[in-house]
From TrEMBL:
Residues covered by the Formamidopyrimidine-DNA glycosylase catalytic domain: 2-166
Similarity comment: family membership: Belongs to the FPG family.
PANTHER family named among the record's database cross-references: FORMAMIDOPYRIMIDINE-DNA GLYCOSYLASE
UniProt cofactor(s): Zn(2+)
Designated name of the protein: Formamidopyrimidine-DNA glycosylase
Record key words, sorted: DNA damage, DNA repair, DNA-binding, Glycosidase, Hydrolase, Lyase, Metal-binding, Multifunctional enzyme, Zinc, Zinc-finger
Catalytic activity annotation: Hydrolysis of DNA containing ring-opened 7-methylguanine residues, releasing 2,6-diamino-4-hydroxy-5-(N-methyl)formamidopyrimidine; 2'-deoxyribonucleotide-(2'-deoxyribose 5'-phosphate)-2'-deoxyribonucleotide-DNA = a 3'-end 2'-deoxyribonucleotide-(2,3-dehydro-2,3-deoxyribose 5'-phosphate)-DNA + a 5'-end 5'-phospho-2'-deoxyribonucleoside-DNA + H(+)
Domain FPG-type, first and last residues per copy: 236-270
EC number: 3.2.2.23, 4.2.99.18
Span of the signal peptide: none
Lineage top rank: taxon: Bacteria
Keyword Coiled coil set for record: no
Amino acid sequence: MPEYPEMDRYRVLLSDALAGQKIVSAEVSREKSLNVPADEFIRRVQGRAIWFVERRGKHLLLHLDSGERLLAHLMLGGWMYFGSEEEKPDRTVQVRLGFEHGNLYFIGLRLGYLHLLSAREAEARLAELGPEPLDPKLTEERFAQRLLAKKRSALKSALVDQRVLAGIGNCYADEIAWQAEVLPGARIGALEPAALTRLYASMQAVLTEAKTLGGYMEHPFRAGDVTTGGYNSQCKVYDRAGEPCLRCGSAIVQEEQASRKVFFCPSCQKDH
């Protein structure tokens, strides 16, 4: 599932490609990906220009000149591609937005969605999200307070709770925990102050590096895109079950926690 670094990468790429551009056509092949009937969606977006693109947590907001917003959440398996009909991947497209110089294809939206909302509706939809993990206002003290409010929870469960912090999911929760030398299953209330300090620094380091390298999703955004997915090869534990830990050499373990895959080193990650 795309997380903060991947969605911020999309924000930058979409801004470069589409800011100020008019939607000249639209096509919907899966109406369930929308929140309004397909014909109404097409009528309301066709002819509208995209003013700018914003990200909030794992969501993207495309601001239209009508004052409405296109709210995109890719969920599990969703991605986007911008280009010509000849360039697009050989995958099923749920929604296509046509522009003068190319098409924006929404692919894999079986669980994800593209909703057309008023400004007030969009604000209400995102109201319960926690702070952004790299927001300068999220100090180490505020970070610790938000985690400790979930002191009975396991670390990973708290990190992926979008009401605690917005944008962290399975991959980066495991990477942050590994970098901080804390087990993903450690109980928040049992963590020592030093562990909370390490987690805060780890969160900033991991997400900054992942954002710089283009995230872990390997689907290119357009022809010639060689940056998107650059962090995939840099993951220390995620999807590396059985491989040696890069810090101590022990085998990385994969387990399940609260119906989520979790990857960690049982040797150098601790529960306090």
